[in-house]
Amino acid sequence: MTTDRGRWWRFAAILLITGIVLVPVAAVLILSLRPGVASGSDAAFGLANFTHIFTDIPTLTWLGNSLGVTLATVAVSVAVAAPAGYVLSRGRSRSVSTYSLLLFIVQSLPVITAVIPLFILFARVGLVDNLVGLGIVYVGASMSVAIWMMAAYIDSIPVTLEEAAWIDGASLFTGFTRIVLRNSLPGLLSTAIFTFLVSWNDYLVAIVFLRSQERFTLPIGVQTFFQQNGTDWGSVMALAVVMMLPPVIVFATLNKYFSVGGIGGSLAGT
Fold this sequence. Notes:
With about 270 residues, the protein is mostly helical. The chain is built from 13 helices and no strands. Helix content is about 75%, strand content about 0%. It starts with a helix and ends with a helix. The model is unreliable at about 260-270 (pLDDT under 50). It comes from Paractinoplanes abujensis. Belongs to the binding-protein-dependent transport system permease family.
């Protein structure tokens, strides 16, 4: 009886916390659907704000820029982190230990400490106000944690599987691609989701590196639109909804593969 009562209390507490967390999201959705005063509409809810942001401001351009940079960052990060994590997981030499220590040092540094030196360097090679330059920064910023996540997941795959393949004549590369990668789908997707969220939600790096409105990503676009239209809450909230949708869709689709244990293991390894 006491155990059941404790479960109900925990369930009620989780329900209350979830409700508190969702209040701002619900407010954004409601405000985005309420027509503004300037629209002259008497309807309680409508899609006028979404029509406005997609027809009168470059929302699609900002959305395309964000998706392009984020997906490119995810692809490059996963492609590099998988073999690097394999080396970190299986390697036992001093050079690998030094490499591991270097990753730990890079991971512990705040991104802001590298932004200004990178801005000066990128300005000399023409990568400021350039989405390619922004993607390079995102890849570098997420790479250390991505490698640790992959290494933590590959640790859970028995080495004996690769050893059996080597006995049958498989090379080291074949063992990695056919044994390790085939069994690393949750780890790969967890790393992809983590990198996606880091790149998609970034504001600090984008505000430093981007100057032209046609190259803005969505976080910068939302901030710029808010500064110019602070009283048009409906349109601002509609933009916020557009920005929230891709991460929600990605996480809702791939959440069953998201490995919290992989993240915990990677952080514990530091």
